[in-house]
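Annual report, structural modelling task.

Input specification for the oxaloacetate ion complex:
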Amino acid sequence: MSDQQQAPEIYKGLAGVPVDYTAVSKVNPDTNSLLYRGYPVQELAASATFEEVAYLLWHGELPDERQLAEFEEFERSQRGLDHEIKRVIDEIPLTAHPMDVVRTAVSVIGAIDPTTADDSREANLEKSVRLFAKLPSIVSYDQRRRHELDYVEPRGDLGYSANFLWQTFGELPELPVVSAFDVSMILYAEHSFNASTFTARVITSTLADLYSAVTGAIGALKGPLHGGANEAVMHTFDEIGPGEGGAERAVEWLDAALAEKRKIMGFGHRVYKNGDSRVPTMRDALERMVEYYDRPDLLELYTALETAMGERKNIKPNLDYPAGPVYHLMGFDTETFTPLFVASRVTGWTAHIMEQNAANALIRPLSVYNGPDERHVPEGR
Ligand SMILES: CC(=O)SCCNC(=O)CCNC(=O)[C@H](O)C(C)(C)COP(=O)(O)OP(=O)(O)OC[C@H]1O[C@@H](n2cnc3c(N)ncnc32)[C@H](O)[C@@H]1OP(=O)(O)O
Ligand SMILES: O=C([O-])CC(=O)C(=O)O
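The model returned the following structure:
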């Protein structure tokens, strides 16, 4: 670029750049609030089921009794896994990360669904419910095969969260566990233009199908700066080592990690700078699970690390920080945590895909070239 030309402003990472409207959710860092279609997420977590929240995200309104019954009937009828999907999962080596399994399974569902190319809202709604219904089967099937356990068929007499836990562990979970799991699904469901949702919207903007957009979004969610952080939080806890003296070790661990300029997973956020609106609700769920499983040492470590991070960096936890230990207590493998995030966020992704489709513009920003000036291939080369 010549000296005379003014350097254009670059918004690295699109930080602070509004790129479109959305009616799906509102993240307000000033009031530390999150609304799904206008409803505070804390109210939904306290009084709605994850199925109702999924319906709300897709349709814009909470379902009435009849609408919920119809939705649940269809959702429960879609929970099973086709032979083809199981076969493809079986082919994936156990060394693969569970996120790779989930990404591949969604891609296969797209490859075998005869309605994939139909991008009408009606067809896309059905595909969204299909993915919502099948993801618990996919995630639980993969966790179980890693322990050489057989697939557990879904149960049509159970709600979403009870069935997810049933399929994963093969036993009926108690109510407090179902309720904490359901709360986590509600809190993870939607968060405006985060990296994975934006990925889904970029893919949709090319008029590619819903499954392609969800497959791409899963790839974006895998990274530790985004959804992969809930898994990374548990690796931190393992490194520190819960149990007696965990709280003191947490402080020593943090000082050493910060001295090495490591990013502390589960802390910080692109939009919230004064704390994540969802953390208090998820922390309450963690407290309930710590009591249920009698693991006060985990909460001590959690609190010590949070306090020390606040004192040293003034950086607060994000949703992944309390979610990681909650899933650990429930018995999920650490590598399964981010697939659980997928199972929830598929609702938000697909709501955004349908919104993007309804008022589409190809997403294609500009870049500013800073490579070599024009040059020519030497003659005779
Ligand atoms: C559900 C979710 O996806 S929530 C996000 C989950 N991700 C994580 O938990 C990963 C850890 N956190 C992070 O890496 C970051 O906080 C992000 C990626 C989430 C947000 O990043 P950004 O908005 O780009 O903030 P940025 O990275 O510029 O941070 C600003 C400053 O705070 C520091 N900082 C931010 N988060 C952290 C952290 N977790 N650990 C240590 N330092 C941090 C940065 O190093 C930077 O310091 P500097 O100004 O001295 O360079
Ligand atoms: O909004 C973000 O950037 C990340 C996040 O918290 C989410 O996707 O839930």
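The chain has two domains: 25-222+335-358, 229-330.
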